[in-house]
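Narrative of activities, Objective 1.

The group set out to show that a structural description can be obtained from nothing but a protein's sequence at a throughput compatible with the screening campaign. Below is one input-output pair from the validation batch, recorded exactly as produced.
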Amino acid sequence: MDNQDELRRQRRALKEEIEAADRSGAGAPGNDRAHEGFQATSAFQHAGARLQDRKPAAPDLEMVLDIPVRITLEVGGADMPIRELLQLHQGAIVELDRQAGEPLDVLVNGTLVARGEVVVVEDKLGIRLTEVVSAAERLQSLR
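Output recorded for this entry:
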């Protein structure tokens, strides 16, 4: 923290020097303060270069590991007009846009992350992942 405090102090001092030089008309012919303004700007650029050279710390994933997310399995979907939707009754069959045996989509917070097949484990349904979606595909699905 001492290094960051020192950088903030230097940045603040340089900013004050630049503002003071601007107010006094630095850069005008015959003005002795023009050189001071140049020094402040040069020092400010040097500090900026030092900040750019710093390597960013590795991301701390520990902060996000306990955030709950919603996992959804999508069997398929269908488009239909409201008229047909209102005519559905118990026992009605809705044809989905997937073939039997096709993998299900695994969505995390609405984003496709994998595909898989349904399995039964001790009287509970589960999913066996058969394919994990690449990062490029995930990004494309967000667009």
